[in-house]
TrEMBL record:
Organism: Pseudomonas syringae pv. japonica str. M301072
Similarity section: Belongs to the band 7/mec-2 family. HflC subfamily.
Name the UniProt record assigns to this protein: Band 7 protein
GO cellular component: membrane
Alphabetically ordered keywords of this record: Membrane, Transmembrane, Transmembrane helix
Stretch list, region Disordered: 1-36
Signal peptide: none
Topological type in the membrane: Single-pass membrane protein
Classification via Pfam families: Band_7
Compositional bias segments (type: Basic residues): 21-32
Length: 251
């Protein structure tokens, strides 16, 4: 009887031990399942963070010194950024940016054969120092006029100045531009008038302002040299004749 009872206790102990072991195993299984389930969430969070950083980086605009930046929305200008530093925009394809160079440029007219008021030909070359006016309206005007191409602007300005030289030269006699008497030469007046010819027109047409205009070169073609020599000879002969006449009267 006691032997059976002992066997029963042993079996009961085994059952209890087995139950305890099973419980432990169940607890271990639950702990293992929680680990892998957390990693997809971490990966998703990291991916979302990287995407957010990428969008933020794509939305930043760096406006450099000496530049303006035109922000376009679906290809149409929406605003102009003028202050150097960082700004925001919608990422592509909603908005894009176009830098516009505001630095000073110099354009030469090249040699131009023009006529003076007294009908003589001169060869003159002038230069213009210009830059895109740093305000929103003129920056956009420059973009529309030459598609934001400074070289194309320079080419058109060169033609512009060539025409202005012709008009300006026709207001001056040769003697006020080329003379052995330096006090009679007035190149400054020529340059000022040339600037007045182009100043407002370049601003209205291209959105650029003229900072300086100057004559680089002024020469006389052979036909003008010959005419000038003949004129000087005639003037000397006239003076000599007048002196002779005065001498005869005094005698």
């Amino acid at each position: 009887m006691s032997l059976f009872h002992h066997h029963h206790d042993h079996a009961d102990h085994d059952s209890h031990d087995s139950h305890g072991h099973g419980g432990h195993g169940h607890h271990h299984h639950h702990h293992g399942a929680s680990g892998p389930a957390a990693f997809p969430w971490r990966r998703a969070s990291l991916a979302a963070l990287l995407i957010a950083f990428a969008i933020a980086a794509a939305s930043l605009v760096q406006v450099r010194s000496g530049e303006a930046t035109v922000v376009t929305r679906f290809g149409n200008p929406s605003r102009v950024l003028l202050e150097p530093g960082l700004n925001w925009r919608w990422p592509a394809p909603f908005e894009a940016t176009i830098p516009v160079d505001l630095r000073l440029r110099t354009t030469s007219s090249g040699l131009q054969d023009v006529g003076t008021r007294d009908g003589l030909r001169i060869i003159v070359q002038a230069y213009v120092a210009w830059q895109v006016q740093g305000d929103a309206d003129n920056v956009q005007r420059f973009m529309r006029a030459v598609q934001n191409q400074p070289d194309e602007a320079a080419r058109q300005i060169r033609t512009f100045v060539g025409s202005a030289l012709e008009t300006t030269a026709s207001s001056f006699d040769l003697s006020s531009l080329v003379n052995t008497d330096a006090s009679k030469v007035n190149i400054t007046a020529f340059e000022n008038q040339l600037r007045q010819q182009i100043d407002q027109q370049l601003l209205a047409t291209y959105g650029v302002r003229v900072l300086q205009v100057g004559v680089e070169r002024l020469t006389l073609p052979s036909v003008t040299l010959n005419a000038t020599v003949d004129r000087m000879r005639a003037e000397r002969e006239t003076i000599a004749t007048e002196r002779t006449a005065v001498g005869k009267r005094e005698a």
